[in-house]
From TrEMBL:
Signal peptide: none annotated. Keywords: Acyltransferase, Transferase. This is Ribosomal-protein-alanine N-acetyltransferase. It holds the Pfam family Acetyltransf_1. GO terms for molecular function: N-acetyltransferase activity. Residues 3-152 form the N-acetyltransferase domain.
Amino acid sequence: MTAILTALHPTDAPRCAEIETAVFGGDSPWPAAAFRAEIAEPHNRYVALRSDDRLIGYAGISVLGPVGERECEIHTIAVDADHRGRGHGHTLLRALLDVADAEHADVFLEVRTDNDAAIALYDHHGFTRMGLRRNYYQPSGADAYTMRRPAGGDGGRT
C-alpha cells in the first residue's frame, strides 16, 4: 500500500475532523469547519497523505512575517491510527519543513509533554525544547513543550 502526498482540500475537512477526533479527542479536536477555515488562509499550507485515495493523515504550517524575516508555526500533524508506525509522520513533517526551508524560516510548535512518539519525531528533525506551557491543552489540562527548529536546522537528518 503506497501513500501519496498531496494538497489538503476543503472537501477533506470531514475526514480530517474524523481523524482529529480519534487522535485528539480529549483536547478540543477541530471540527470540519475549522479545517476549511485553516485551509482557506493564504499564509497556511496544509498537506494530505492518501492511500488508495483515502485520506490517512494531514499536516499544516503557517508562514508568518515579512519576506526575509519569516517564521513558521506547525499547527497540526495527525495520522490515522490504522496507519501509524510506517513513517507517515516523518513524511508529513518533512513536507512542512520543506515549506519552512524554502522561506529560510525558523519553525515553532507545541507538543504534549507525554507524547513520546511526537517528541522523538521532532527531536530527530532538529527541534529543541524551548519552554513549557502549563495546562496548554484543554480541557485535559495537559502541559506542552514549546519547540523550535532553526531555519534549515535538521542537521541533515531526514
